[in-house]
Amino acid sequence: MIDRRSKSTNEADAGEILAIDCRLADRAAEGDRAAFEEIYRRYVNRVYGLCLRLTTDVGEAENLTQDTFIKAWFAIAGYAGRGNLGGWLGRVAVNLWRDQFRATARRGRLMEEVAAEPRQSRDGVIDLLTSLDLERCIARLPEGGRLVFVFHDVEGYTHREIAELLDLAVGTVKAQLHRARRLLRNMLAEDREAAHGA
Amino acid sequence: MERNPSNNEKRDSQLSRLVGQMRDTGTAPGRDLWPEIDAAIDQQEHRSTGGSPGRKRRPWLRLAAVAAAMALMLAAGWAGIRSITGDSIIQEVASLDGAEESEAPNSGLAVIDKALDELTLALADDPANRNLSHLVLMVHKTRGNLLRRNTENLMRD
Predict the structure, then answer these.
(1) Which site among A44, A58, A148, A187 would you substitute to test the B interface, given the most B Cβ atoms closer than 10 Å to its Cβ?
(2) Which of A52, A124, A138, B150 is the one with CA 20 to 30 A from A150?
(3) What is the CB-side half-sphere exposure of residue A31 using CA atoms within 13 A?
């Protein structure tokens, strides 16, 4: 059942968050570094989490997070309250990551992963797991599946956008996503069983 | 009759709930990254004001921004576009914003948003470009004015 009161509370909260973000972004666009630092404090976990999911390396994720906020400082005038500020920062991070990803030319590896045989899928309920468990499981996914899952299911990119981003066919992206979800369900079920068996 | 969700649907909805939590909570970095960010911004600003060579430029992005701004002006029904290059585009957008006869249709907002997207990308690529910064701010202002005018028109009707 949908709790209407909590839904409207959430909407009010989202409106308030957006209003605060707009005020901070306006001040930052005028050169207020303290306002930008507040934006950093509000969103660093979201941005770093994304960077870590993309790179799976702490050092690379820290560098990408820093580059993201540096670029965002110079481009903040372009945000101006259009949508979620966390999402906008995420796009900045993904654009920066894309340049590095293309430079390393890892496409061949992503293509190979599609052909690999997926592990046997099993039924399992994942209701007792936390987002930290999910984070750990995502990090264990093969690179292609991990990236496609993060872009599609976490960040909301379309199949086509992901195909362009990773230089893959749309069909390949769909296959990667399907496989990644199946692997994740599998891993999460195993995690849960292990937790219960302990 | 209510349909019982299948195991797969149930698992997918649990997974998407977890994904939402994970995205919003994020992960805290092991150290505070702000001091280095702050210093890097100072350094880049110093470089750009000092006139030393900045990062490599991508002229096609600049051209895309100009094309987007031109599309914006066309969408707003603003006639008389002549040779628009460099700084003059800023003046053109500014005059569009102030023009009383400018009555852009609602569909113009979509074009403005697209122009803003392209300008934002151009600015991200060339952050020290003051012309682009001003242009972005002006287009935002124009967007706000357009929204206000549209709202006023709706109230009148």
Answers:
(1) A44
(2) A124
(3) 5
Q: Nearest Cβ partner of B33 from A33, A65, A124?
A: A65
Q: What is the pLDDT of residues A132-166, one digit of tens each?
A: 788 888 988 998 999 999 999 988 899 999 999 88
CB-closest option in A47, A78, A131 to B119 = A78
Residue A37: what pLDDT? Answer: 96
pLDDT in tens, B50-101: 533 333 444 455 556 666 666 665 555 444 333 333 444 445 455 544 444 4
- For chain A, counts of helices (H) and of strands (E): 9, 0
For A76-118, what is each residue's pLDDT tens digit?
988 866 678 998 999 999 999 988 877 665 555 555 554 444 4
Predicted local confidence at residue A149, as pLDDT: 93
Structure ipTM over 0.95, yes or no: no
Cβ neighbours of B14 in A, within 8 Å: 125-127
Distance CA A159, CA A106 (A): 19
Query: Inter-axis angle of helices A170-197 and A159-166, to 10 degrees?
Result: 100
pLDDT of A119 over the 60 cut: no
> Which amino acid is it at A90?
G
Q: Which of residues 78-117 of A touch B (CB under 8 A)?
A: 78-80, 82, 92, 95
Do residues A156 and A127 touch, judged by C-beta distance below 8 A? no
Question: For the stretch B80-102, what's the b/e string if a residue is b when 16 or more beta carbons lie within 10 angstroms of its beta carbon?
Answer: eeeebeeeebbebbeebbeeeeb
**Collapsing DSSP states into helix, strand and coil, what is residue B84?**
coil
Task: For residue A145, give the nearest of A178, A170, A123, A120 by alpha carbon.
Answer: A178
- Minimal CA–CA distance to B37: which of A64, A169, A24? A64
Cα–Cα distance for residue pair B118/A7, rounded to 1 Å:
34
Q: Does B156 touch chain A (CB under 8 A)?
A: no
What is chain B's alpha carbon radius of gyration, rounded to the nearest angstrom?
A: 23
- pLDDT value of position A113: 53
